[in-house]
Amino acid sequence: MSATELPAGHAELMDGVYRWQRHIYDLTRKYYLLGRDRLVDGLDVPQGGTVLELGCGTGRNIVLAARRYSNARFFGLDISAEMLETANAAIAREGLSKKVNLSRGDATDFDAKALFGIERFDRVFVSYSLSMIPGWEKTVSAALAALAPGGSLHVVDFGQQEGLPRWFRTLLRGWLRKFHVAPRASLRDVLESESQRTGATFHFRTLYRGYAWLAVIKILPDFAT
Fold this sequence. Notes:
- The protein is an alpha/beta fold.
- It is built from 9 helices and 7 strands; from the N terminus they run H-H-H-E-H-E-H-E-H-E-H-E-H-H-E-E.
- Helix 7 (136-145) runs parallel beside helix 9.
- The chain is globular and about 45 Å long.
């Protein structure tokens, strides 16, 4: 899907939400987007590997990952032009422009070959984006389809806060709705179902009493989706 074919409603919504928020996004989100660094540490990118982030936002995670895995190449996709402007500026400041390539696109339906010149990636990760994407299940399928044999998909997002007090869940959900964010109750089931469909291994863990969920789907070396 090209930039001109992006779903206008959602693209405009995200640009509207983050036109000003992007300037303070990383300062505020570090307090409640928990588990992102753990996801990056667990990527275990192979030497010279390729990594795609879906919903790269301000570039915070992809910059961290590019520093952590200095011999890999990184690619990022986001539907918001406003966020991509901030992300590209961050990447330039860090001197990473030669190893990180960003493009505007829809995480539910993208053509990696057309956008980046690469069809398959060793790692794909999605950090706190599925809870913002309409039709997020399609993003999971698209991410798996973009993996090379032996590659892995890494996801961190809001859980159901199952081990936390009800009052906390109520306050959190109310706050998140202001930003069009909705924790996906069926996230684990969808990820597990997709791992079974693709013959992949599935690892899942809850973080911080269910505040966040972290999952890894690894494709077998001889399997292609």
